[in-house]
Amino acid sequence: MRKLKIGVIALVIVLSLSFLFVGCDTEDKKNPPPPIHVESDTLYVEKVENLPEDFIMGMDASCVPSLEASGVKYYDYNGEKTDVYKTLYNNGINYIRVRVWNDPFDEKGNGYGGGNCDIENAIKVGKRATENHMKLLVNFHYSDFWADPAKQMVPKAWANMDIDTKAKALYEYTKDCLQKLKNAGVDVGMVQIGNETNGKMCGEKIWMNIVFKLMASGSKAVREVLPNALIAVHFANPEKVTNYADYASKLAYYNLDYDVFASSYYPYWHGTLENLTEVLNNVANTYNKKVMVAEVSYAYTAEDSDFYGNTIGEGGGVTKNYPYTVQGQANCVRDVIDTVAKMKNGIGVFYWEGTWISVGGASYEENLAIWEKHGSGWASSYAGDYDPDDAGQWYGGNAVDNQAFFDKYGKPLESLKVFGLVREGNVVENKANALEDTNLVIDLNGQILLPEKINAVMLDNSKQEVEVEWTQMAKVEGYETLPYGPIDFDAMKNDGVQKYDIIGTAGGMTAHCYVSMVEYNFLQNYSFEEGEKGWVATPIGAMDELKAEEKSTDSLTGLWHYHFWSQATNSVEFTLEQTVTDLPTGKYKYTISIMGGDGGNTNIYSYVKINGEIVKTSPLELGGYNVWNTAVIGDIDYQSGDEIVVGIYVQCEGAGNGAWGKIDDALLNSVKE
Ligand code: CA
Q1: CA 27: distance to chain centroid?
Q2: For residue 304, how far is its CA from the centre of ligand 1 (angstroms)?
Q3: Which position among 196, 204, 353, 414 bears the catalytic label?
Q4: N or C: which end of the chain has fewer CB within 10 A?
Q5: Is the pLDDT of residue 38 over 80?
């Protein structure tokens, strides 16, 4: 009892002190934000013109407390252990975003994960943001766990409420949370009422309930507690071009009081920057609202660092507009800042969870134990009761550790400096930053030629050719790359159909040339999957049907084959041919297959013409339904420049009614000399 009293007194003193602190107008004088000076010798940053002084350079850094509890340490560029929020500020970040879940814990108090981001966590994050001169965006999900376009689950405590009771609960909850932040002296600049609320929110699916009841209640609470804070609504999928016009019109129809229309923008999912500009400008112009990007992120590496697979990255290489490099990450962010700065009423950009890194264990099992205990993975097993379909199935670690601004040891990446450098630009010597992979398909019997130059992506994201020296090769079997050894073209030709990874150096980096050795077919549309394309049929008799046909049960491979049929006696006679030019000089083999019946005495053969003369033929017969006969003509000598025609002649002599047949799978392969 006595102890409790002391606790209460201590609490009152702490609260009074923080009230004093908040109430003090001279705070800026006592604790002025230190000037920021960002320098880099290696990061290329193109200046964003006309960037307002107060443009929001935001960072969602919600997970930090749970990561620190998990043993994560953050450092500055000198390798000194430093408050990560200070490092963010020092590199140009002026706003921190933190998500808030109502009750991300099970009955026994076990956290759901994803940072266990309740209001207490938000207060911790907010205080550190304020101490480091940054404002806070409070991001209410109005759920006990992740809310996004796919799921907007109602908090457990509100599950059985009717909409009016739920709206009242949301109002009171919002007010209570914001009051707590205010009491703690947190500088809340913006409040987000819902997260990626694309037509769902807090278990509701009707716009009237979402906007008129729930969002309006959240908005009212913000205005009452923090009259100077901006109110943001947040949606995703700008690439679906009618989405935002539709959502904004719903907000207007129900007369929602809000200031900022915010969008997620993940470059690998959410369309082009031009489209983003168009859909957000439309909202800004039509309703005179501010707009911003509330979430963006990009990979600095393809590699995972916590034994839990990542959203993007595997497969590596330059698959998108930016390479997965530190510079590529910075270029992506710079371009998004540039895009939003040029929008009408564009106020800023928030990067998503740039501080969420691996908890550092040496194995999956070790990390899993940490994620379960401290909630530092995306979901713990304890979330399974609340979110059985997603968290219950896939709980585990961090799927975005390769999109952070800190490496797996907690050291800041050079790319973090983009937020500071973008204001004045930072032009360094332009050089190769990443190499494009080369993919070749080479005929087993052909010549293996590797490129002497390959495409590099430069620091400024332009492309240039650079010279490459190929040094080693390895077989690739499925997802596995066998050990590398010397490059051996003869071995590649002798080992049959096989994939290789040939590595070399270019611009000081490792280049990859993926080679598939194949039995190359020089005919186009060999299985008639593209209909008649490449083939010429010449009717001699008067057939009722002569055409490419789609019917998988009558095809040797694929869905299509070439079909003939005639009712009239002795009327089937035609040729089917393909002309090929520009083959390399050498020996070739031609193969074609047929099935059919009711043809009487047939005269059927495949043939090869060179420069208009038939040089070789091979006979065929109709063997009945689904009995395929194959003709092979080998030893075809071809000189570069000759015209080669491969074909099939079909005549059904003395046939009764209904001679029919199917032709499929024509192959022209080179033959080893
Ligand atoms: Ca991971």
Answers
A1: 44
A2: 5
A3: 196
A4: N
A5: yes
- Both tokens of residue 38? 């960002």
Q: How far apart are CA 584 and CA 554, in angstroms?
A: 34
CA–centroid distance, 308 to ligand 1, in Å, is 4
- Rounded Cα distance, 295 and 475, in Å: 41
Q: Which residue bears the tokens 């443009």?
A: 55
SS3 assignment, position 576: strand
Rounded distance, CA 451 to CA 395, Å?
A: 44
The sign of the CA dihedral 353, 359, 365, 370 is: negative
Q: Largest alpha-carbon pair distance within the chain?
A: 114
Q: pLDDT tens-digit profile of 410-440? A: 999 999 999 999 999 999 999 999 998 898 9
pLDDT of residue 30: 58
- 504 closest CA partner among 487, 491, 518, 490: 487
Query: Rounded to an integer, what distance in angstroms lies between the CA atom of residue 159 and that of residue 165?
Result: 11
Does residue 4 have a pLDDT over 70?
A: no
Average pLDDT, the chain: 93
CA neighbor of 596 nearest in space, from 640, 634, 556, 537: 556
Pairwise pLDDT comparison (567 vs 368), residue with the higher score: 368
Per-residue confidence (pLDDT) for residue 424, from 0 to 100: 96
- List own/partner pairs for 610-618 with CB under 8 A and 24 or more apart: 610/636, 610/638, 610/642, 610/643, 610/644, 610/645, 611/642, 611/643, 612/643, 612/645
> What is the pLDDT, as a whole number, of residue 241?
81
Q: Does residue 601 surpass a pLDDT of 50?
A: yes
pLDDT tens digits for range 279-313: 999 999 999 999 999 999 999 999 999 999 998 98
Distance CA 361, CA 578 (A): 61
Catalytic residue among 120, 239, 278, 295: 295
| pLDDT category of residue 568 using cuts at 50, 70 and 90 | confident
- Is 429 catalytic? The answer is no
Among 139-148, 220-229, 494-503, the least confident range: 494-503
Cα 370 to middle of ligand 1, angstroms = 14
Shortest CA distance to 377 belongs to which of 362, 363, 356, 392? 356
Which tokens in the block code for residue 281?
């400008």
CA of 297 to the centre of ligand 1 (A): 14
Give the C-alpha separation, 225 to 227, whole Å: 6
Is residue 372 annotated as a catalytic residue, yes or no?
no
324 alpha carbon – ligand 1 mean position (Å): 15
The dihedral sign for the CA sequence 236, 240, 241, 242:
negative
According to DSSP, residue 209 is labeled: I
* Distance in Å, CA 397 to ligand 1 centroid: 6
Distance 327 CA to ligand 1 centre (A): 20
Q: Using the mean position of ligand 1's atoms as its centre, give its distance from the Cα of residue 441 in Å.
A: 33
**Which candidate, 526, 532, 579, 551, places its Cα nearest to that of 660?**
551
